[in-house]
Fold each of these.
Amino acid sequence: MIEVNSTIKLRTVVEEDSDFLITLLNMEEIKNNFPRSVPITKQSHIQFIEKLKQSHEYYWIIEKNNIPIGTISIYNINYDHNRAEWGRFVIHPKYCRQGIGTAVLFAIINHGFNKLNLHKLYCYSIPTNLIALNLYSKLGFTIEGVLKDHIYINEKYSDYIILGLVKK
Ligand SMILES: CC(C)(COP(=O)(O)OP(=O)(O)OC[C@H]1O[C@@H](n2cnc3c(N)ncnc32)[C@H](O)[C@@H]1OP(=O)(O)O)[C@@H](O)C(=O)NCCC(=O)NCCS
C-alpha cells in the first residue's frame, strides 16, 4: 500500500475490482487513449489478475477515502538496467482536474526511485493526449522520441511518444 496523502492511497488490484475496472476502462474518453484492440471483460480481467500474481509487476487501484477512483501500474521492470515502464494510468472523469493525478504520479516516481531503487522511469502516450503530456512534463518527464505509426488505435495507425525521467 502506498499513502499518497491523507485521502489518496494506492492498493494492489484484486479480482473483486473487476466490475469497477471494466466500467472505467471501457469508458469512451478513457479507452480512446490506450492501444487496446478488444474491450475488457470479466474473464479477461480475471486472467490478467492471475498472470499478475506470477509476475513482478505492480498494479494499483487508486482510492480516495477508500473508494476506487482509478489505476496506475509499474511494469517491464528491468534490474539489469534499473529501469521500468509505468502506465495504465487512469482517473475516473468525476475525479479529474483536482490535482489527484499529479499527487499520484509524484508518489509513483518517489516509489520507483526510492523504494524500488530504479534509475529510470519511462512511459508512452499518444500525441493527442495533451492532458497526459502536460502532466508528465510538469513532473519532469521529457520526450525521448517519437515512434512512427507504432500503434493501431481508434481505427488508424498513430505515432507513440516515449517519455523518460532519470533519477537525479
Ligand atoms: C491523465 C489523467 C490521469 C490526469 O489526472 P488528473 O487527476 O486530472 O490530473 P491533475 O488534476 O493532477 O492535472 C494534472 C495536469 O494535467 C494537465 N491537465 C489536466 N487536465 C487538463 C486539460 N483539460 N487540458 C490540458 N491539460 C490538462 C495540467 O497540466 C494539469 O496540471 P495543472 O492543473 O497544474 O495545470 C486523467 O486525465 C485521465 O485519467 N485521463 C484518461 C486516461 C489517460 O489518458 N491516461 C494516460 C494515458 S498515457
Amino acid sequence: MTSGICVIIPAYNASRTIHQVVASALKHVEKVFVFDDGSTDGTAATASEAGAELIKSDVNKGKGNALKILFQKAADAGYDTVISMDADGQHDPEEIPHLINEHALHPDDIIVGSRMHEKEKIPRGRYNSMHVARFYISFCANQFIEDTQCGFRLYPLSLFQKIRLTKERYVTETEILMKAGDSGYIIRPVKIRAIYDDAGSHFRPVIDVAAIAAYVISYLQIKWLKEGLTSNRPFTYIPNNLRDRIAKHKNIDLLYQFIAVSVTLPSAVVFFLGYILLSPVFNNYVLVRRYYGGFFRILLASFMLPVLLIVSISEKVLKVMNIRFKLVDALIQWAYPNHWIPRK
Ligand SMILES: Nc1nc2c(ncn2[C@@H]2O[C@H](COP(=O)(O)OP(=O)(O)O)[C@@H](O)[C@H]2O)c(=O)[nH]1
Ligand SMILES: [Mg+2]
C-alpha cells in the first residue's frame, strides 16, 4: 500500500463494473474517489458499497469535468499524486503497481498506460485513429507519446498548478498531455493490457474525434507560429496564453477552431517554409528536429489527411457492396511513422 497516492475514477452508468474496479483498486491504494456523473443505473450506490468515497453530480457533464473535480478533491484530501482509471473495467486495477513502480523511479513525470503493443485486441478503427492522433499530439507535447488516448494514468498533482484546463469531455485528457509536455514535463509509458471485451462506450467516434482533432490542430498552429519565430524555445505553453484566452469564450473558440482546421494545409506549408528558411537565423523547431523525418514528414502527413478520409469512406462504401478493400491501415503506417530520436 503506497501512501500519498490515491485512485480517481470518473464514472457514468458503470454499475456493472464499478464494484470490481473499486474493490480491486483498494488492494493497492488506501483511497479511491469516484465521481458519479448523473448516472441513472445505481453506479453511486455500487461504488460506495465497494468502499469508494463518492462525489455526485445530478447532471451529466462529461469525463473532463469529472476529472477536474477529482484532481481538486484528491489535492484537498492531502494527496500529491493520483492514478486515474476508467470505470468500465477497461483498465485492470491489478496493473496499478506498474504505474506506481515507474513513478517511484521518476517521481516528477507523468506515467501513461499504453495499449499500443496489443494492436490485435483493439478495434481497427480505434487503433487507426489512436495512431494518427499520437502523431500530432506528440508534436504538441514535444516528445513521442505511445498511447495518447489511454485514461489509465498517474499524475503528480502539482502539474495542475502549472497548466490551466479549458476543454471538456474527452478532449481534457489530450489537453493535459499536450500542455504538460509543452511546459517541460516528461511523459512515460508503461505497457498495460488492452481490454475491449464487451465494454460499451460513451465515446462518439465522429463528434469526439472531431473535437480532439480540432483542438490539437488549433493548438499546434499557435505553438508552431511561436516556435518558428523564436530560437530554441520548444516549450511554448504558459497558463492563460493566447490559446487559453480564446478557449475561455465558447463561441469564439468554436469559430477559431473552424478557421484553424480550414487552413490546416496552407498553414502546414507556411510552417514548413519557416522550418527550412528561418533555421539558419533562428534555431527554431528544435524538438521537431528530434523527429527523424523533420517537418517534411509533417507536411506529407497533413496532406494525407484528406486522402485518408476519402479512402476510409471508399472502404466503407465498398464494404456495403461486399467488396473487401483494406488500404487505410497501410496508408496510416506509411504516412504517420513514429520515428522520434529516443530520449537519453
Ligand atoms: N464522469 C464521467 N465519466 C465518464 C463519462 N463518459 C465516460 N466516462 C469515463 O471515461 C471512461 C472511458 O469512457 P468510455 O465511454 O468507455 O470511452 P472509451 O473507453 O474510450 O470507449 C469510462 O469508463 C468512464 O470512466 C461521463 O460522461 N462522465
Ligand atoms: Mg471504455
Amino acid sequence: MSFSENIKLQVKEKAAFRCCRCQNIGIDVHHITPEKDDGLDDISNAAPLCQNCHDQFGDNPSKRKEMVQMRDWWYKKCEIKYSAQDVMLMREMVSKLEEIKHGSQSGINELKQILRNIHNKTTDKVIDKLSRETADATASAIVNSIDAIELSQKPFFYVYYLEEDYSYQTSMKGRNFKNKWFTLEEDGKMTIKKGYVWDGCPPKYKIRDLYIGLQEGCINFETGKSKTYYASLVHDVFYQFSVDIRSLVSRGDVDYEFYLLLKRDKFTFAALYYFNVRLFGWVWWNRN
Ligand SMILES: [Zn+2]
C-alpha cells in the first residue's frame, strides 16, 4: 500500500510544500516507519521530505524519533508563518517545477514569472538563467532567501521572528552600545529586542549568480530551536548594524561569537560554518 492522494496533499499543505528537514521545496511524502516494517499509511507516519534528505535519513531506524520531532516542529512553524494564500502560492510553484521536470518550456517561463513577483532585485539575473536543470535549486534558494513577499503584503519570508527579548553573555567585554534593536553592555551582556526578524543562517551568499546557502541546522530539542538559531540571530544583528558598531567590534569578533554559539548549541558543523562566514562575510560587513 501507499499513502492516499488525499493524505499526501494534506501533508504537503501542512508543510507548505517544503521539506521538514532542510526547508527546500520539491518534496515527496515518505513513510517514517517503512511499509516493510509494518509502517502505516496514515498521516501520523508520513513526513514531507526532499529527495536528498530522504536519501540521508529515510531508512535509518535510529532517526525515526528525530524525524517525527522535526516534522511536528516544521508543521507548527508553517502554521504560524504561512497563510492559506501563501500555501497556495507554494503549491503553484511546486506544480510548475513538476511541469518543468516533464519538459515543459512554458512552465519555465511561468515559474520565472512567479519568482519575479516575489523576488527582491538582487535575484533578477538568477531568475533569468533558470533552466530545467537548475529550476529546483533556484526556486528553493529564492524562497529560502527572500526577505519579503509583496503578494501577501507581509514580510513572511523572513525565516525567523524573535518572540521574546533574548539576552546572553558574549565574550566581548568593555564595549557599550545601544540602539533600537539591541544593547551590548560593559560586561559583555547582549540583549536583543523582541520582534527582530532575520533570515536564519548567515546571508545566503550570491557569488557569480549562484546562491550558496547554509542550511539551517537540525533542531536542538533543549531549546526547541534549530541548532543555528541563536548563532544566526546574534550574527545577523551585528552584521545588520555593522556600520554603527564597527569602531567597537570587528568582523572577526562577531564571527568568533557566531562560532562560540554554534558550539554552545552543539552544532556539528560549527567549524565549517565559521570558516564560511570568515571567507564570505566581508561582503555584508560594513554595508548600509
Ligand atoms: Zn530536505
